[in-house]
Task: inverse folding
Protein backbone atom coordinates (compact mmCIF):
# COMPACT_ATOMS: atom_id res chain seq x y z
CA UNK A 1 0.00 0.00 0.00
CA UNK A 2 1.32 3.42 -0.93
CA UNK A 3 0.68 6.10 1.66
CA UNK A 4 0.29 9.82 1.23
CA UNK A 5 3.01 11.75 -0.53
CA UNK A 6 5.78 13.25 1.62
CA UNK A 7 4.25 16.68 0.96
CA UNK A 8 0.75 15.59 2.03
CA UNK A 9 2.13 13.88 5.12
CA UNK A 10 4.09 16.97 6.24
CA UNK A 11 1.15 19.24 5.46
CA UNK A 12 -1.17 17.15 7.65
CA UNK A 13 1.39 17.13 10.46
CA UNK A 14 1.76 20.92 10.32
CA UNK A 15 -2.03 21.30 10.37
CA UNK A 16 -2.24 18.98 13.40
CA UNK A 17 0.50 20.98 15.13
CA UNK A 18 -1.41 24.20 14.48
CA UNK A 19 -4.60 22.72 15.91
CA UNK A 20 -2.75 21.51 19.02
CA UNK A 21 -1.24 24.95 19.59
CA UNK A 22 -4.55 26.73 19.12
CA UNK A 23 -6.43 24.38 21.41
CA UNK A 24 -3.75 24.37 24.10
CA UNK A 25 -3.08 20.62 23.81
CA UNK A 26 0.61 21.08 24.44
CA UNK A 27 1.09 17.44 25.44
CA UNK A 28 0.42 16.56 21.78
CA UNK A 29 3.42 18.56 20.57
CA UNK A 30 6.08 15.98 21.42
CA UNK A 31 4.57 13.17 19.32
CA UNK A 32 3.92 15.69 16.55
CA UNK A 33 7.58 16.75 16.65
CA UNK A 34 8.62 13.11 16.27
CA UNK A 35 6.28 12.71 13.31
CA UNK A 36 7.69 15.92 11.78
CA UNK A 37 11.23 14.56 12.02
CA UNK A 38 10.26 11.35 10.21
CA UNK A 39 8.33 13.32 7.58
CA UNK A 40 11.27 15.70 7.08
CA UNK A 41 13.54 12.73 6.40
CA UNK A 42 11.10 11.55 3.72
CA UNK A 43 10.95 15.05 2.24
CA UNK A 44 14.74 15.00 1.80
CA UNK A 45 14.46 11.87 -0.34
CA UNK A 46 11.58 13.22 -2.40
CA UNK A 47 11.11 16.11 -4.76
CA UNK A 48 8.88 19.05 -3.94
CA UNK A 49 7.55 21.57 -6.39
CA UNK A 50 8.15 25.20 -5.56
CA UNK A 51 4.42 25.57 -4.78
CA UNK A 52 4.52 22.64 -2.34
CA UNK A 53 7.65 24.01 -0.71
CA UNK A 54 6.03 27.43 -0.40
CA UNK A 55 2.93 25.92 1.19
CA UNK A 56 4.99 24.04 3.77
CA UNK A 57 7.07 27.13 4.52
CA UNK A 58 3.94 29.22 5.17
CA UNK A 59 2.49 26.55 7.47
CA UNK A 60 5.78 26.07 9.33
CA UNK A 61 6.29 29.83 9.76
CA UNK A 62 2.73 30.25 11.06
CA UNK A 63 3.28 27.45 13.57
CA UNK A 64 6.65 28.86 14.66
CA UNK A 65 5.07 32.26 15.31
CA UNK A 66 2.23 30.66 17.24
CA UNK A 67 4.67 28.52 19.23
CA UNK A 68 6.58 31.68 20.14
CA UNK A 69 3.38 33.32 21.40
CA UNK A 70 2.49 30.21 23.42
CA UNK A 71 5.99 30.10 24.87
CA UNK A 72 5.81 33.75 25.90
CA UNK A 73 2.40 33.19 27.48
CA UNK A 74 3.70 30.23 29.48
CA UNK A 75 6.67 32.27 30.68
CA UNK A 76 4.36 35.12 31.69
CA UNK A 77 2.15 32.74 33.68
CA UNK A 78 5.23 31.25 35.37
CA UNK A 79 6.45 34.72 36.29
CA UNK A 80 3.05 35.74 37.64
CA UNK A 81 2.63 32.58 39.69
CA UNK A 82 6.07 33.02 41.18
CA UNK A 83 5.60 36.74 41.84
CA UNK A 84 8.17 37.79 39.26
CA UNK A 85 6.48 39.99 36.74
CA UNK A 86 8.91 40.45 33.86
CA UNK A 87 7.15 43.56 32.59
CA UNK A 88 6.68 46.92 34.19
CA UNK A 89 2.99 47.76 34.22
CA UNK A 90 0.41 46.50 31.78
CA UNK A 91 0.93 47.29 28.12
CA UNK A 92 -1.26 47.23 25.05
CA UNK A 93 -0.80 47.87 21.35
CA UNK A 94 -2.06 51.13 19.92
CA UNK A 95 -3.62 51.62 16.49
CA UNK A 96 -0.19 52.46 15.10
CA UNK A 97 1.24 49.12 16.31
CA UNK A 98 3.37 50.49 19.13
CA UNK A 99 3.17 49.31 22.72
CA UNK A 100 2.13 51.71 25.45
CA UNK A 101 1.42 51.41 29.16
CA UNK A 102 -2.19 51.16 30.25
CA UNK A 103 -1.33 52.46 33.70
CA UNK A 104 1.70 53.62 35.59
CA UNK A 105 3.71 50.96 37.40
CA UNK A 106 3.11 50.85 41.16
CA UNK A 107 6.48 52.50 41.79
CA UNK A 108 5.37 55.58 39.83
CA UNK A 109 2.08 56.24 41.61
CA UNK A 110 2.01 59.48 43.54
CA UNK A 111 -0.24 60.44 46.35
CA UNK A 112 -2.27 63.61 45.90
CA UNK A 113 -3.60 65.61 48.76
Result:
Amino acid sequence: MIGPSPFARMQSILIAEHAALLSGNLHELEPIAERKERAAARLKRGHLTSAELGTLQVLARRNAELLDVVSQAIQTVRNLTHGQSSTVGTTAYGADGTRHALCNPASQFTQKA
